[in-house]
Amino acid sequence: EHGHDVNTFMTRLLFCLFSEDTELFENSLFTKTLVSRGGQYGEHAQSIISDIYRILNTPDNKRDGESEWLCKFPYVNGDVFALDGIHIPSFNIQAFHYLKEAGETIDWKEVHPDILGSAIQKITDPSERHSLGMHYTSVTNIDKLLGPLFIDELRDSRVKANASGIRRVGNLQKLLWRIGQIKVFDPACGSGNFLVIAYKRLRELEIQLLNDLLDAGVSQIGLFSQITLENFYGIEYADFAAETAKVSLRIAEQQMDAVYGEQFNKPASILPLRAAPNIHTGSALSVPWNEVCPAKNDSEVYICGNPPYLGSGGRSEIQNAEQDSAMKGRIKNGARALDFVCNWFVLAHAYCVLKTHSKFAFVSTNSVTQGSHVPTLWPYLLSETMEVAFAYPSFKWSNLAGNNAGVSCVIIGMQHEGISKKRLFLSAGELKPENINPYLMPTPNVWVTKSSKPISKALPEMIKGSQPTDGGNLHLSPTEREQVIRQYPESEKFIRRLIGSQEMLKDIERYCLWIENEDLEDAIKFPPIAKRIEANRQMRENAKKS
What we know:
Elements: H1 3-20, H2 29-37, H3 45-56, H4 68-71, H5 78-81, H6 93-105, H7 115-123, H8 126-132, H9 139-162, H10 168-181, E1 183-186, H11 193-215, E2 232-236, H12 239-264, E3 278-281, H13 289-292, E4 301-305, H14 317-327, H15 342-352, E5 359-365, H16 373-381, E6 386-396, E7 408-416, E8 423-426, E9 429-431, E10 475-476, H17 478-487, E11 495-498, H18 501-506, E12 510-513, H19 520-523, H20 527-542
């Protein structure tokens, strides 16, 4: 009943625990207040936390009449603690004990914000997680994507700026201004891991550039970082994950502010909080991306993430309708058969073609580079002067979650033609080919299309594949096979193991009758086989199709 309330309560709790360990609050203020005022058994914790959340959203000039103990908490601002009438849960003694233990024994300033995503996977209902195709990405895999998408190029630009002689200061300042304008957009952001790591990498680069300017004789360093959370955008369907994304980014901001303050002798933590991240709660396939992440045509926007993986058979009717809408006017034939992740590729393409300095890259199941996906999806993705900028061919998935997803993934980045040199990351090393095709090969753009006629005239036309159209009469389960052979041992030569795609993938044991024309008379001497052949004949004669 109170799913949203509990989600909001928990993310605010995380923020409070983090803040009291990072000098945003007085040291241990939140925990000490709970211990002293929450009651012996936690019977007052509900009201105490409610008052704390309220005061954190109350400016100093509106605190007249508030208790002295409450006014020790600083004004944070409405971004994190906006009053929306949320229900604070009541505590039993065990829950109150765990809360006190979390505050007293954990050093929250050392927490990695990306860990929160793994925590959510433990909390979120497994059936909901599967239906949404949710996966959580390790920092290693995030860096695999962010590096070639834009971070590597920025680092190279810093090296070039430092080597530009008399233009060094000007070029460093231009690069500093540039990274302050970059927008990062994850349209399937989950708990915000991609946005958190992108934010940290940009802040790290900013600190390096400011140190370069100090080295070059420029001594004026701003009070605040020029990289603000308002340039980080996300869309997330799950409410708890969206709320956590906001808090994860806030934690990352405070951690990087502490590094910034230490480096340049600035205040480490400053309240109230500055600009908020733009995290939209809802379906990425139902909201126009330009509304979530508005940008000019010459803006530098990087779209990234790990969208949900769902095959054509695992989607709900709502998801199918969303896919129809996303593909309409873009993929003409076969759109329903595409993996759900393809929607993000299609919408990212539609967004980026209008912005000449934008790129996008996603972690995806390798299905998008195989089989019928290629001729269906890729003619659109390679239209409007777009090309594959970089790629990692199939690798085994790993993440920080409790149960790793058992899939093989690819990473694919796309750009406008000629923005940067292409990079193909193989297990043997990196290649810099002239082109990367949809199969992630360093060769021209070609793809295999379906055909109803044989390519070679020497081969007969295939009417059907291995579909028997037998009504199940020519198939036997292991038990049925044993029954026939036990009664008629000589019939075994007409029963063979059947291995199709499902039997191979799922280790299913099935058998079938296998009778050559010349052996028919011998086979029908066995009553169980004769009965099955007759039943098959009747099924086919009564079928509507000829």
